[in-house]
Amino acid sequence: MIFLTIDSSVFLSSLLERDHYHQTSLAFFSHIHQHPYITTLPMIVVLEIANILSKYNKDPRPAIESLMALTILPHDQSTIEEAITIFKRLHLKTSDALVVWCAYVSESTLISWDKQLIRQAQKLIEASTPSDFLKKMI
């Protein structure tokens, strides 16, 4: 079984047709829906997606409903302590540190279009773009 933590950048590019990575993100999601991957994400990813879709005047509720079917890791006291360690080690902004935290605690591969996030995350966990992940898996 392969565990994945998917950053909001990948979800958003699959939802926003004008996004440069739209087609590749759709292919990535098509692939993971056809295979037994387990996807985890922190609640902040759900909130980021809702926020961005709202800014594009899109109704975020259908996306949120789909995301809630995935494993959402809550934020609690232990999250804060672990995230602080990640902040210090990787020098990431809060939302990115929480995504890395999620991948770390769930022993997942982080999937993102954010190359800086991937570079920093690879100091601690496995991380990849959707296109690189697909090349390895297909």
Describe the structure.
The structure is a single chain. With 138 residues, the chain is an alpha/beta fold. Helix content is 59%, strand content 14%. The protein is built from 8 helices and 5 strands. The chain has helices spanning 8-15, 22-33, 43-55, 61-67, 77-90, 94-105, 115-121, 130-137; strands at residues 2-6, 37-42, 71-73, 109-111, 127-128. A 5-stranded parallel beta sheet has the order 3-2-1-4-5. Helix 7 (115-121) links the parallel strand 4 (109-111) and strand 5 (127-128). The longest helix is centred in the middle third of the chain and has 14 residues, at 77-90. The two termini are 16 Å apart. The mean pLDDT is 93.
Radius of gyration: 14 Å
The coarse overall form would be: globular
Going across the biggest sheet, name each strand in turn. 3-2-1-4-5
Question: How many beta strands in the DSSP annotation?
Answer: 5
Spell the H/E element sequence. EHHEHHEHHEHEH
The amount of beta strand, in percent, is 5-15%
Give the helix/strand class: alpha/beta
Task: Please write out the topology.
Blueprint: E1 2-6, H1 8-15, H2 22-33, E2 37-42, H3 43-55, H4 61-67, E3 71-73, H5 77-90, H6 94-105, E4 109-111, H7 115-121, E5 127-128, H8 130-137
Parallel strand pairs: 1-2, 1-4, 2-3, 4-5
Helix pairs in contact: 1-2, 1-3, 2-8, 5-6
Summarize this structure briefly.
The chain is of the alpha/beta class and 138 residues long.
Task: Name the features.
59% helix; alpha/beta; 138 residues
